[in-house]
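W.,

You were right to be curious about this one. When I first looked at the sequence I had no strong expectations either way, so I just let the prediction run and decided to look at it fresh. Below is the sequence, 305 residues in total, followed by the output.
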Amino acid sequence: MMTKRVKEILSHYPGENAGVLTNLARMMMSGRLAGTGKLVILPVDQGFEHGPGRSFAVNPPAYDPAYHFQLALDAGCNAYAAPLGFLEAGAAEFAGAIPLILKLNNHDVLHDEKDPVSSQTGTVKDALRLGCAAIGYTIYPGSSGSRAMYEQLRDLAQEAKSHGLAVVVWSYPRGSDISKEGETAIDVVAYAAQIAAQLGAHVIKVKAPSAHIELAEAKKAYEKSKVPIETLPQRISHVVQSSFNGKRIVIFSGGATVGDEQLLAEIKGIHEGGGFGSIVGRNSFQRPHDKAVELLGKIMSIYAS
C-alpha cells in the first residue's frame, strides 16, 4: 500500500499524468526503502563513460550485465539504471523484478573534450520495449554544447512523459569556463539542479557540493543573504531548496570509489540535509558482491533512520 510520504511526494507533480506518477511510485515503493520516500539506485553506465577496464577489472564478475541486475536485487535497490546494451542483455531475464531506468545518452573518454557533449544512444521506444519505469539523460551545464543537450532533453522528456515514463536527469556542470573545483562548487551544483528541474526532470542527480563558490556574482548574493554553506548538510539543504523548494526528488552521486567510512559519512550528511537518496555505482560494483550488498545495506539503513 502506498505510504503517506510517497503520496506527499507525488503531490508535488500536479501536472503529470497517471502513468508518470505510477512509475515514480514504482521506484519509491520498491526495494528496502519502499515507502520511505528515499531512493538508492544502482547506475552502471561507467563501462561506456570510463571504459571497461577502469570500471570492471577490479571486480571481474562485473563485466557480465546480469551481475548488476542481481546486485541491485540482492541489495534491495529502488531501481537499476544503465545504457541500452546492458539493459537489453538482462531485461527479459529479470522482467518485473526491479524498476529500470534506460540511460538515453552517453559520453566516452576516447576523445578529450573541454566542453563535453553526449551522444544519444537509446530512444523512448527502447525504454518502453524494455519495460522501463523511466528514462535517464545527462546534461553538462557550462559546456559549450549545453544548448543542444537542453533542447534534446526537452524533446525526449516530452515524449517520455506522453508515454507515462518518469524522467531522471544527471546534471553535471562541466566546461572550459568552469574550473575543476567549480564542478562541485555549491553555487554551480545548485544552479545545475535548478536547470534540471526547469527542463522537466522528476528526479535530479547531482554531485555532493563543496563550500567553494565559483561565480563572482553568486558569491556576492550568497554573502549578502548569508546563505549557510559551511557544513555538508547545509549545502545539501540548499541544493534541495534550489530544486523547487524541495518539490523535486534530488539524489546525490556516490562518486569515485572511496573507503566505507568516508562514503558513509557523506551519506549521513546528505540524509541530515534532506537529500532524497543516493545513486551509487563504482562504490558498489567495484567491491566484491557480498561487500557491496553489505555497504548498500548500511547506506539504506542511514536513509531509513
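Here's what jumped out at me. The chain has a mean pLDDT of 97. And, maybe more interesting for your project: The chain has one domain: 39-304.

Coffee later to discuss?

I.
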